[in-house]
Specification:
The complex is a heterodimer of chains A (199) and B (342).
Chain A: H1 5-14, H2 22-34, H3 36-52, E1 53-55, E2 62-64, H4 71-74, E3 82-86, H5 89-98, E4 104-107, H6 126-134, E5 139-142, H7 148-160, E6 167-170, H8 183-194, E7 197-198
Parallel strand pairs in A: 3-4, 3-5, 5-6
Antiparallel strand pairs in A: 1-2, 6-7
Chain B: E1 2-11, E2 14-20, E3 25-29, H1 36-48, H2 57-60, E4 67-75, E5 81-89, E6 92-97, E7 100-102, H3 106-111, E8 114-117, H4 123-126, H5 129-143, H6 145-165, H7 173-203, E9 214-219, H8 233-239, E10 250-255, E11 258-259, H9 260-263, H10 266-288, E12 293-296, H11 299-302, H12 305-314, E13 319-323, H13 330-333, E14 337-340
Parallel strand pairs in B: 3-13, 3-14, 8-12, 12-13
Antiparallel strand pairs in B: 1-2, 1-4, 4-5, 5-6, 6-7, 9-10, 10-11
Helix pairs in contact in B: 5-6, 6-7, 7-10
Classes of the chains: A alpha/beta (199), B alpha/beta (342).
The structure holds zinc ion.
């Protein structure tokens, strides 16, 4: 059977994306071939993303090249005494969309998980301690995922900051693992943020 | 509860079959290999959403097929009927109650509880510490959804800790805190449910069961408190495995105040196993407000006819048993509705 090798390559690459199987990859590939304008936009967006997106050297969230530290880290209107610790860069955008938090962020880049080979050195943990000392943070708010690994990471952070004059609190319920937020998620998370307790 | 009928597609040796069940006592007869245990397993799927033989779903699919379906109708004491369905297709499993998809398989058990008696050697008879702990953990998880969640979290933290113990410099404390937190709940509930079970064993089925003085003793391996597990770090690092915590607790079975392994004969052990199972069934019935259907796999192999007769006369609710049809049991079987599987 003859199939153009560029088409095979496109399908194989799409299949590397999370949640995309063979059938979806083929559907997407044929769609892009039928819609040259979308293909062009995608090509452009991917190029921009590769050229312009990078990680903020302060909070480790996502920012544009040339904007490091990111606007969230440099915005003078934001509360400098509060630091919200999350696992993934997308959690920052999720919380920003909720608009419940006006302080600054710190992205760990994951959670402790020895079975996946993730120890404290693989996460931005030492850097968190340095920031708390350097920036004179008064409250560290843990907004980690509601998993065993998220809970273990919370315990680790508590121990890590134990000798520093900082209050460590934890939101009442963890951040949902998915990226989409339903209405009820928004309400629950807002309540969770307001009802956070000292850990 | 009782199951009225069952419809199977591509389940083990059944390409497509329907079964209808008697209201109380039902015995299913057939030669070895005809699929009697598979049929009980299918009934179990409508309750646990999985195989009680711990077989993975993909291994339950009939040879050459890619999906299976188990469908059935059950009825509660008030006569309210529920349609249950479990569907598996290439790695994905879905469960339905009255046509509505349920997210947690536990929902099936809440609607339609069953208790299954193992025909082969089992934890209670053998006295293996780990198997016996798993046996009680399984039932406690069914009795208490919070126990099920705490057990899952504890096991996950334990797995992470065991890996951390094999990784130089990996911190143990976070996992210890979680094992202490979830473990505390496990210990508390094990104590509570063993107490309830012992009350049941003391006061329960004396008229049915010829064995008396069966008791369960729960022995926690450590007195859990925050920070305790850190004390064992050096020893655990050296051995490379987590040595302390509720995953090392023991359950003892006492017969006339002595460990069952020391005093009970083979036949008595089987009676003790059934005694325990019937008490757990009563405990589930009180907790869930529904009497679980009792699935007895080949009880006629291990129990004597007089006992089966008492069982048949004294048991509440629906009982489904399997048997290779063999002579000499005619009188005892006369109380049961007998259907051949083939
Ligand atoms: Zn930043």
């Amino acid at each position: 059977m003859w199939v153009p090798s560029s088409l095979v390559k496109l399908v194989e690459t799409l299949k590397k994306l999370p949640g995309v199987g063979t059938r979806t990859a083929e559907r997407l590939a044929f769609f892009l071939l039928r819609e040259p304008l979308v293909l062009e936009d995608l090509e452009h967006a991917l190029h921009q993303a590769r050229e312009n997106l990078t990680f903020c050297s302060v909070c480790h969230g996502i920012t544009e090249r040339g904007q490091d530290p990111c606007p969230l880290c440099t915005d003078p209107r934001r509360n400098t005494g509060q630091l919200c610790v999350v696992e993934r860069p997308q959690d920052v955008f999720l919380l920003e969309r909720l608009g419940v938090f006006q302080g600054r962020y710190h992205v760990l880049g994951g959670a402790l998980s020895p079975v996946d080979g993730i120890g404290p050195e693989q996460l931005h943990l030492q850097d968190l301690r340095d920031r708390v000392q350097r920036e004179g943070i008064q409250e560290v708010i843990l907004a980690l995922n509601p998993t065993v690994e998220g809970d273990a990471t919370a315990h680790y952070v508590l121990q890590l900051l134990a000798d520093l004059p900082v209050k460590v609190t934890r939101i009442a319920r963890g951040l949902p693992a998915g990226a989409d937020l339903s209405f009820s998620d928004v309400t629950t998370l807002r309540d969770a943020f307001e009802g956070r307790t000292e850990f | 509860m009782r199951i009225l009928h069952l419809h199977l597609i591509n389940f083990r040796n059944f390409a497509e079959r329907s079964f209808y069940f008697a209201k109380t006592l039902q015995v299913i007869t057939g030669p070895n290999g005809s699929g009697k245990t598979n049929l009980l397993e299918a009934v179990g799927y409508l309750s646990l959403g999985k195989s009680f033989r711990r077989t993975p779903d993909e291994a339950v699919v009939a040879w050459g097929a890619r999906h299976f379906l188990v469908e059935g109708e059950v009825e509660d004491v008030l006569g309210v009927r529920h349609r249950l369905k479990v569907r598996y297709h290439e790695g994905r499993k879905q469960a339905f109650v009255n046509g509505k998809r349920v997210r947690a398989l536990r929902r099936l058990f809440e609607v339609f509880p069953v208790v299954y008696a193992d025909p082969l050697e089992n934890a209670v008879i053998r006295g293996d510490t780990e198997e016996r702990r798993d046996f009680f953990d399984d039932y406690l998880a069914l009795l208490d959804p919070k126990y099920q969640r705490a057990l899952a979290a504890y096991r996950r933290a334990l797995r992470q800790k065991n890996m951390a113990l094999k990784t130089p410099e990996a911190p143990l404390e976070p996992w210890n805190r979680l094992m202490e937190h979830h473990g505390h709940y496990l210990v508390e509930q094990r104590q509570y449910w063993v107490r309830r079970l012992n009350d049941m064993l003391r006061n329960g089925k004396r008229q049915i069961l010829p064995v008396e003085q069966v008791q369960v003793e729960y022995e926690p391996s450590v007195r859990l408190q925050e920070g305790l597990l850190d004390r064992f770090a050096a020893e655990e690092r050296e051995r490379g495995v987590a040595l302390y915590g509720p995953h090392r607790d023991r359950f003892h079975l006492l017969y006339r105040s002595y460990p069952l392994e020391e005093v009970a004969s083979h036949g008595e052990r089987w009676l003790i196993y059934y005694t325990l199972l019937l008490s757990l069934r009563d405990l589930l019935a009180r907790t869930l407000n529904r009497m679980p259907v009792l699935l007895l796999d080949e009880p006629f192999h291990v129990l004597d006819p007089a006992f089966i007769r008492r069982l048949a006369l004294g048991l509440e609710g629906q009982v489904i048993a399997t048997a290779v049809a063999f002579p000499g049991l005619g009188e005892e079987l006369s109380l049961w509705k007998n259907s051949a599987i083939l």
